[in-house]
Amino acid sequence: MVNSGKNSALVHRSDISDGIKALYISQSQMDHLLKEDSYSWGYKEGFETALLSLSQLLGVVDDFQRTQQMLNRLESKRMPLVQGHSA
Description:
Layout lengths: L12 H19 L6 H21 L2 H24 L3
């Protein structure tokens, strides 16, 4: 895209941060659909590492880590319900 005129082609930091958070939240929701096996665990770890690297590169690592911590806290509150259904 070529920038002409007074409109800036730059992306706002908040848009970058929101995009990375949305990817992380989507991946987190997808985890509930995946069977717990070594493949899905490796996928989750790789995806989180990639998003962390991307957020560092784009300068929004603090926002990403706060979102990650918030979702981990929420997930840990749900964990006892999941464990209660295991045989």
